[in-house]
User: Which sequence fits this backbone?
C-alpha cells in the first residue's frame, strides 16, 4: 500500500517552510480537542479523546500487586498502548510493534517522572502489597499525533478515575462495592508536546500527512512551575538538531504551554462535573 | 490492439462515471438476499444460492434487465484492463519496473512499453524508485498485472500533490461523462488526473489552488451518496473561495 507520496511530501515541506500549513493552522496551533469521559462502566476511569480526526480511547484499571524490590513502599504503574488495525491501514494485529511500544513508554515516562501520581499513598503494606495503576491506550483513528492525544487521554482518565474498594479483612478488592475515593494525584500535571521538524521549521500537532513527511521529532513533557519545567524528553527519527534549533523547539512548546494547558484542564474539569 | 478496440475502451472508461439520474438504490451487506426467483441472474458482486441471489459485497443494488449486480461501496482496487492508474515504483529489474498500484496485486511496467528509448543500464534515468507515474493497465493475467505508458499524458508525475480516495468512489469523482472532474478542474485551475486505483494527482500553479481542488475532491468522495452532487460541489467550492478572500 502506498502511504504517502514524494510529491505530497515536497509540497508540504515547501509550504511549511513559508510558515503555512495545509489546513490553515499556525505552526503551533492544535486541532479541535474534545474529551468524553463516559467510556466504560467497568473500568475505574476512561476517556475518549479526539484531536481533529484522531481518536484515542484510554482506560484505567487498578489491582493489587506486589511492589518492585527497588520501591517497596510505592505503587506500580503500567502503561500499554495498542495500535488497532481499525485505526489505520498501516497497523496489523499481533504483538505491539515499535510505534505502539514507544507511545506506551513515553506516556509512562511523562506520568512517572512528573510525579503526577502520589505513589507512596498507593502502598497498602510495605514490601508486600501495593496498588497497581494500569493505563491502556487504544487508537481508534489515526490522523496524526496519536501520542499527544493518548497523553491527554491518560491525564483525563486518571483525574476522573475512582479507586475500587479494598476489603481489608478478605485482603481482596471488591469491584462491585461503591467507592468515592480518588487516585492520589499531585499538582504536577504533565503536558506532552510532540514537536516535529521539516526543513528549518518546527511545528506542533502534525496531521497524518505532515507526520509522514516529518524529518524528525522532539518530544517534551512539561510540569507547571514558574518557569515551566521539563520532566521528560526524547528525540525521534534520524535527524540532526543543533543546540540553537533545540532551544527553538523548546521555546515553541513553552510559548504554547500556558494556553494549551488551561484549555486541556478546563475541558477535563467540565467533563468531570458532567459525570456527577 | 487495433484502433477500434482502443476507441471502445476509452468509451467504456468514460461510461464508468457515475450516473446521477437513477432512482434511489438499496444498500446490501454480504450474505443478504437481494431477490429470489429463477427470473434473475447474478451479476458482479452477487452469487446464486438455491432460489436466492445473495450479495457478496457491501454496496448498492443495480438492476439491469434480468441481471442483478452490486456496486461496492468499500474494498480494495481490483485491476481491470484499460484502467488508468497512478503507481509508485518499488523496484527495478533488468527489463522494467516493479510498481505498487494501491492494489493487492503488484504491477510490472516493462521497458518495451515506454514511449521513448530507455537505456537498459540506467533505468533510474527514466523512472526511479519512489517516483510516481500515471499509466494504463495493459493486461491482467494470472502471473500479474502489466502496465503500459503508450497513450497521451502517461509517464512520470512531477510537482503537485497526491490525494488518496476510496477506489470505489472514483466514478463519483469523475462524474457522468467526466462532468464532476471538469467542474473541479475549471473552478480550481488545476490539472487533475484521476487514477481508478484511488490516487488523484493535482497539479496547479500554486499550492492554494491545489489545496482547493484537494478539498473539493475529498468533499465529493465523502458526500458521494447525495443526489445532485455536482451542484453541492459547486456550492462548496464557491464557499471555500469566499473564505479565502
Assistant:
Amino acid at each position: 500500500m502506498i502511504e504517502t507520496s514524494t510529491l505530497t511530501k515536497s509540497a508540504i515541506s515547501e509550504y511549511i517552510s513559508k510558515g503555512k500549513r495545509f489546513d490553515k493552522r499556525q505552526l503551533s496551533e492544535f486541532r479541535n480537542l474534545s474529551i468524553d469521559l463516559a467510556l466504560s462502566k467497568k473500568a475505574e476511569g476512561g476517556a475518549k479523546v479526539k484531536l481533529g480526526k484522531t481518536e484515542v480511547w484510554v482506560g484505567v484499571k487498578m489491582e493489587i500487586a506486589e511492589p518492585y524490590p527497588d520501591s517497596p513502599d510505592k505503587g506500580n504503574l503500567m502503561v500499554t498502548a495498542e495500535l488497532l488495525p481499525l485505526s489505520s491501514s498501516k497497523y496489523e494485529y499481533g504483538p505491539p510493534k515499535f510505534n505502539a511500544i514507544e507511545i506506551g513508554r513515553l506516556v509512562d515516562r511523562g506520568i512517572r517522572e512528573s510525579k503526577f501520581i502520589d505513589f507512596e499513598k498507593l502502598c497498602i503494606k510495605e514490601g508486600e502489597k501495593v496498588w497497581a495503576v494500569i493505563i491502556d491506550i487504544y487508537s481508534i483513528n489515526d490522523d496524526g499525533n496519536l501520542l499527544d492525544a493518548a497523553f491527554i487521554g491518560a491525564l483525563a482518565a486518571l483525574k476522573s478515575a475512582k479507586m475500587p474498594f479494598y476489603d481489608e479483612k478478605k485482603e481482596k478488592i471488591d469491584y462491585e462495592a461503591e467507592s468515592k475515593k480518588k487516585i492520589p494525584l499531585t499538582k504536577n500535571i504533565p503536558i506532552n508536546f510532540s514537536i516535529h521538524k521539516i526543513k528549518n521549521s518546527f511545528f506542533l500537532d502534525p496531521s497524518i500527512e505532515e507526520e509522514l513527511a516529518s524529518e524528525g521529532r522532539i518530544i517534551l513533557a512539561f510540569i507547571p512551575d514558574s518557569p515551566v519545567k521539563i520532566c521528560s524528553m526524547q528525540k525521534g527519527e534520524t535527524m540532526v538538531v543543533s543546540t540553537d534549533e533545540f532551544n527553538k523547539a523548546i521555546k515553541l512548546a513553552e510559548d504554547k504551554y500556558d494556553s494549551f494547558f488551561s484549555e486541556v484542564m478546563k475541558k477535563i474539569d467540565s467533563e468531570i462535573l458532567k459525570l456527577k | 490492439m487495433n484502433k477500434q478496440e482502443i476507441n471502445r475502451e476509452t468509451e467504456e472508461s468514460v461510461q464508468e462515471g457515475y450516473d446521477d439520474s437513477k432512482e434511489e438504490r438499496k444498500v446490501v451487506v454480504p450474505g443478504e438476499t437481494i431477490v429470489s426467483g429463477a427470473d434473475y441472474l447474478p451479476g458482479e458482486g452477487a452469487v446464486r444460492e438455491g432460489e436466492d441471489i445473495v450479495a457478496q459485497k457491501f454496496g448498492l443494488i443495480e438492476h439491469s434487465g434480468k441481471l442483478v449486480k452490486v456496486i461496492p461501496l468499500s474494498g480494495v482496487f481490483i485491476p481491470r484492463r484499460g484502467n488508468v492508474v497512478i503507481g509508485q515504483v518499488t523496484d527495478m529489474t533488468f527489463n522494467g519496473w516493479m510498481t505498487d498500484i494501491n492494489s493487492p496485486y503488484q504491477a510490472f511496467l516493462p521497458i518495451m512499453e515506454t514511449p521513448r528509448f530507455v537505456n537498459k543500464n540506467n533505468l533510474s534515468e527514466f523512472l526511479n524508485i519512489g517516483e510516481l507515474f500515471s499509466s494504463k493497465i495493459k493486461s491482467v493475467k494470472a502471473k500479474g498485472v502489466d502496465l503500459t505508458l503508450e497513450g497521451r499524458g502517461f509517464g512520470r508525475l512531477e510537482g503537485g500533490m497526491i490525494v488518496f480516495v476510496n477506489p470505489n468512489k472514483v466514478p463519483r469523482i469523475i462524474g457522468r461523462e467526466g462532468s464532476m472532474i471538469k467542474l473541479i478542474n475549471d473552478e480550481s485551475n488545476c490539472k487533475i488526473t484521476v487514477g481508478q486505483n484511488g490516487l488523484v494527482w493535482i497539479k496547479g500553479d500554486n499550492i492554494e489552488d491545489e489545496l482547493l481542488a484537494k478539498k473539493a475532491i475529498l468533499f465529493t468522495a465523502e458526500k458521494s451518496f447525495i443526489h445532485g452532487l455536482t451542484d453541492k460541489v459547486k456550492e462548496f467550492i464557491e464557499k471555500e473561495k469566499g473564505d479565502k478572500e
